[in-house]
Request: fold
Amino acid sequence: MNLPVRKYRAAGGIVVHEGKVLLLEWPERGEVRLPKGHIDPGETPLEAAVREVIEESGYAPLEVQADLGEMVVEFDFQGEHIVRTEYYFRMGLANGYERGAGEAAFRPVWAEWSEAERRLTFEAEREWVRRARPAAD
Reply:
């Protein structure tokens, strides 16, 4: 059966602080994810990534450390074949950062690099963590 195809772009961040990676537990869905979301019209991938990390986690301000590139991810979801082009950036918490409310669906947790990679629900997000991890770790 041929499913209808939906294409869109999304951007997110691998946020690192004191040697740990920010993960978002999503208890309602039983998932552990990285912060990311749709790129709005007129928005660059970087602008969307920073906005999404702040909205979902509540942490701000952020410092962008590196562009980790892009990856196309395909999967079937709710009767559609999704083709998503993802852009990720490595980020850190800027001096004087604070944590606001964030999205209620998510519970931010900090994990060591190997634990972060292991806990993430989806392989594509584990690949982003591998791209962001410093060679020395």
Notes: The chain has a mean pLDDT of 95. Residues 12 and 36 are 4 Å apart (CA to CA). The two ends are 45 Å apart (CA to CA). The chain has three helices and seven strands.
